[in-house]
Amino acid sequence: MTITADSVRTLERTRIQAMLANDVACLRKLISPQCSYVHTTGRLDTGESYLAGLGDGLFRYEDLSVSDQSVTLQAATAVVVYRLSARIVIDAEPVVSESRCTAVWAERHDGIQVIAFQATPVKP
């Protein structure tokens, strides 16, 4: 698959839906194991450790709402920036979060995957 703005928007929607469904198998195809994944708390995960936490039930997404999304292409890479409103359960505690997110998608030998993600908290 060649990386285009439309293909990345579709992949990003698929990723968000998989997060809500706790579909680790789908996310494993979309997120590189070596991905640098920075949470709103500043915690750093790899793709593997993020997926392990999700699979182990350390956190669960209840609602994710994306707005104000833009996609910038550069060669075989796409940078997606958006605002995210989230309701998450972390260690059995409900959390409401507003953040600006950056997801970097890249063409790899096994498809297009997220290679970096960062969520920065913002005031609602």
What is the overall silhouette? globular
User: What CATH first level would be assigned?
Assistant: Alpha Beta
CATH level-two architecture: Roll
Query: Count the helices. How many?
Result: 3
Strand order of the largest sheet: 2-1-6-5-4-3
**Structural class by helix and strand composition:** alpha+beta
Q: Indicate how many domains the architecture comprises.
A: 1
* Cα-to-Cα separation, first versus last residue: 37 Å
Let me know the number of strands: 6
Which range best describes the helical content: under 10%, 10-25%, 25-40%, 40-55%, 55-70% or over 70%?
Answer: 25-40%
Q: Strand-residue fraction?
A: over 45%
What is the CATH topology? Nuclear Transport Factor 2, Chain: A
Task: Explain what you see.
It contains 3 helices and 6 strands, in the order H-H-E-E-H-E-E-E-E. By secondary structure, it is an alpha+beta fold. The protein has one domain: Nuclear Transport Factor 2, Chain: A. Strands 2-1-6-5-4-3 form a 6-stranded mixed sheet. Helix 1 runs antiparallel to helix 2. The longest helix has 16 residues. It is globular. It starts with a helix and ends with a strand.
Summarize the structure.
This protein has 124 residues and is of the alpha+beta class. The chain is 26% helix and 55% strand.
Notable traits:
6 strands; globular; Nuclear Transport Factor 2, Chain: A; single chain; 124 residues
